[in-house]
Amino acid sequence: MTTHLKKAGANWVDGDRFFNREAELKELRERVHNGTHTLLTAQRRMGKTSLVRELLRQLEDEGRYATVFVDLEAANDPADAIAEIAIRAKPVQAVWRRIQSFFANHLQSFGGRIDEVALSELKVKLRAGIDAGNWQHQGDQVFAALALSERPVVLAIDELPILVNRLLKGADYRVTPERTAATDALLAWLRKNAQEHRGEVVLILSGSVGLEPVLRQAGLSAHANIYQSLELHPWSHDTSSRCLAALARTYDLDLSEDVRMEICRLLRCCVPHHVQQFFDFLHQHLRRTGRTTASAEDVELVYERELLSVRGQIDLEHYEVRLRMVLGDDAYGTALELLTEAAVHKGRLTDKAIRRYRAALESSGGDAASIEDVLYSLEHDGYLEQQTDGYRFVSRLLQDWWLARHGRFFTPIQDRPI
Length: 418
Known about the structure:
Blueprint: H1 22-34, E1 38-41, H2 48-62, E2 66-71, H3 78-88, H4 93-102, H5 104-107, H6 119-128, H7 135-147, E3 153-158, H8 160-169, H9 177-196, E4 201-206, H10 211-217, E5 228-231, H11 237-250, H12 257-267, H13 272-289, H14 296-307, H15 310-344, E6 348-350, H16 351-363, H17 370-380, E7 384-387, E8 390-393, H18 396-406
Parallel strand pairs: 1-4, 1-5, 2-3, 3-4
Antiparallel strand pairs: 6-8, 7-8
Helix pairs in contact: 1-2, 3-6, 3-7, 4-7, 8-9, 10-17, 11-12, 11-13, 12-14, 13-14, 15-17, 15-18
């Protein structure tokens, strides 16, 4: 068990900053050994990227696998994605030599100094060799290079759902037949290569939004069938308390068990990033007051004045941005209504309220069926969870933030004429 732990900050962590997730690491490692392609699912800030990065670090240290990590958040099309995969494979020398031979005409201007050229410059040249007419062939070549590595390659692709969503909906958030066809082609290409090179290349997919809700909107869910899902759950209160205790030891603070459990109670859903963010704000608060021992009153104060303040909201605003990105303006409007309805009613969205929203949409000529898709996305991505008579917010922190942000001038559905 970790006895001391350093603050994680806002980025992914590995090594001595990585805490817990031993069971998930073991499961993911076994899947790699079995050649199983995996789709990591979880709400935001649950530690998907950190889990993958720590696994890749360990696998590299052991020397049995070559590893490649790719972030597609900035990619706009399949050609961008293939260029990113190719350039991130550069540290795997045998793979990179083959990729160089495939793109020799585009890289020849670098001559013998190619190893000294910045990755950004190399990527521009690689991207110039990929276009709408040849991206599948060039992508096949890149996968073939990966498959011919002396060691099996673990290819971790982060933010594939962002690229898929962007390709499917464009800047105007409209799903069209042309965009659906282009998205289908990308996913079919990835599926083909994952199956063709099974055992030689193992895929791990992840992202800050769920892949399944995006595919469902376009009727493309079958493309996810080759990936076995692995869901990262929130930390238990016990695990969160141990993390807080390890952080407290590192920074010479006194956090009693009662104080640590009060933090967990306020968060309700112990997202790892939120647990460590709470500690960071509490640490800063104690520094300002010249103390090293925290009380329950300190915890309440930090929750109200720091986590729910403008500083704390910067991180939580990303939930809203990602939600709008996935749903588009119309469906986001429905999600905004449903989440705010839940927030003003102590985190609960009843079946009765959902029925009234459906009736209101029908009476105004809207798409009442869209409510089901919105609820699916909200549940899948960890905003809401089902209860016996409806739904409730998973995270109290997100619930309280949503109430403060949207609840002030909101009229509940039962108070509106239909």
